[in-house]
Amino acid sequence: MKKISLSVFMALGFSSIVMAGGNIAPVAPAPVVSEPVDSWSGLYAGLQVGGVWGDADVDYDNTGSGFGIYRTYDLDVDGFSGGVYGGYNWLLDNDLLVGVEGEWNYVDADDSGPVTNTQGVFTKVEQNWDASLRLRAGMVMEDFMPYLTGGVAWGDFDVTVTDGSVSYSTSMTLTGWTIGAGVEKKLSEDLYTRIQYRYTDYGDDTERFYDNGETYLDGKLDYNAHMLTLGISYRF
């Protein structure tokens, strides 16, 4: 009888210990793992400053006046640029980013040089602005993204030829293509900075140059340029 009572007592005591232990140390729920935030996709806009180094060739056709064809070669049109840019990015699988971007830059760049086979005749080329609409593709590497870019570009130019006291001038807007590369860095969830290089071939165009009267000549501008800019942008 004593053995039975002792067995029952031990069983009840063991059950109490198990129940008490369950109340003291409950099983913790599994932690919830959140997905990383994609801070590269979406709409953005920014400001940039930089430099422009251009090469201009100008041909003049004045055969109607008996002077023939003259040329001005290799004008080094260099100076300052500053403007705005903006676009939209999509971050794809494997950290590949694609996007579309537009930019517009004020340009203060010019150069002048002598016209061949003449005495005292000079050409001056000035670039006023640059614009482009491009695609971008890059690889996100944590806070950095190297990328390539390319698309269509436009440039606005003033061209003047001066012969003594007589000046002929015209304005041209050229359309061409551009290609480049850059590196972008994330400073915060919304703020990004970058350095970018673009080469642009604006093509060529022929316009009629007038002086203050009715005298004119025809001229063709062929222009390409290098542009290096430093920018900062905000993600919306």
From TrEMBL:
<dbReference type="Pfam" id="PF13505">
    <property type="entry name" value="OMP_b-brl"/>
</dbReference>
<feature type="signal peptide">
    <location>
        <begin position="1"/>
        <end position="20"/>
    </location>
</feature>
<dbReference type="InterPro" id="IPR051692">
    <property type="entry name" value="OMP-like"/>
</dbReference>
<protein>
    <submittedName>
        <fullName>Porin family protein</fullName>
    </submittedName>
</protein>
<keyword id="KW-0472">Membrane</keyword>
<keyword id="KW-0732">Signal</keyword>
<dbReference type="GO" id="GO:0016020">
    <property type="term" value="C:membrane"/>
</dbReference>
<dbReference type="InterPro" id="IPR011250">
    <property type="entry name" value="OMP/PagP_B-barrel"/>
</dbReference>
<dbReference type="InterPro" id="IPR027385">
    <property type="entry name" value="Beta-barrel_OMP"/>
</dbReference>
<feature type="domain" description="Outer membrane protein beta-barrel">
    <location>
        <begin position="37"/>
        <end position="236"/>
    </location>
</feature>
